[in-house]
Design a protein that fits this description.
By secondary structure, the protein is of the alpha+beta class. The chain folds into 2 domains: 37 residues; 159 residues, Histidine kinase-like ATPase, C-terminal domain (Heat Shock Protein 90). The protein contains 6 helices and 9 strands. The strands form 2 sheets. Strands 2-4-5-8-7-6 form a 6-stranded mixed beta sheet. Strand 4 and strand 5 form a beta hairpin. Helix 2 crosses helix 3.
Length: 199
């Protein structure tokens, strides 16, 4: 086999692997929508899950785009499926990082919130220096159909909502839904109800 033929086979293998991954994601989306997949109900510290996921994200390191994690590393206790939550958070981190031109720093800030007797764990993912602006802006739609991510983001949304959470982006101020402003496109805010807050 020539070198050229070997490279062609390797590319075909990669394409097949991507196709298999998309089919698996589509199957999971359908099963979550129909209730065929039941999310595990185990004690989970959401902030610890975020910590583990963020340590492994290297999506844009070759372009000098870094993910910087801040906020408490533990203390957001909830009941859920740690493995599926980890996969959902990984997909969101990768989606945002892959669209950033380098060099850049993207901050993932963990916050604890308690309002009207309800406790929540919040994760804000935005450009360094824009975290509070992203969180303070009116909520807008999070685009879970971005190119190059397969069905990872629609699957992530379903996992988040299956845990009673919600995901959004800052409202788009550009006036053009096809071309949102950088903060709206490059940020995500996720909120989960938690059973206990440890400050």
């Amino acid at each position: 086999m020539s070198e050229r033929q070997r490279r062609m086979i390797e590319e075909a293998e990669k394409s097949c692997a991507r196709l298999v991954a998309i089919i698996a994601e589509l199957s999971d989306v359908g099963k979550l929508d129909s209730g065929a997949i039941k999310l595990a109900q185990q004690p989970v510290d959401l902030f610890s899950v975020i910590e583990k996921v963020a340590e492994l994200v290297q999506e844009a390191s070759e372009r000098d785009v870094r993910l910087k994690l801040i906020g408490p590393s533990a203390g957001a206790l909830m009941t859920g499926d740690a493995a599926r939550l980890g996969s959902a958070l990984d997909a969101i981190f990768r989606a945002i990082l892959r669209e950033k031109p380098g060099p850049a720093v993207v901050v993932a800030e963990r916050r604890l919130d308690s309002r009207d007797g309800r406790s929540a764990a919040v994760l804000i993912v935005a450009d360094d220096g824009c975290v509070q602006e992203a969180y303070g802006r009116e909520p807008g739609d999070f685009n879970d159909m971005r190119g190059g991510m397969g069905l990872a983001l629609p699957l992530a949304r379903r996992v988040i909502e299956g845990h009673g959470g919600r995901i959004w982006s800052p409202a788009n101020t550009s006036g053009d839904p096809e071309s949102p402003d950088p903060l709206a496109r490059g940020s995500a805010i996720i909120s989960f109800p938690v059973t206990e807050l440890k400050r």
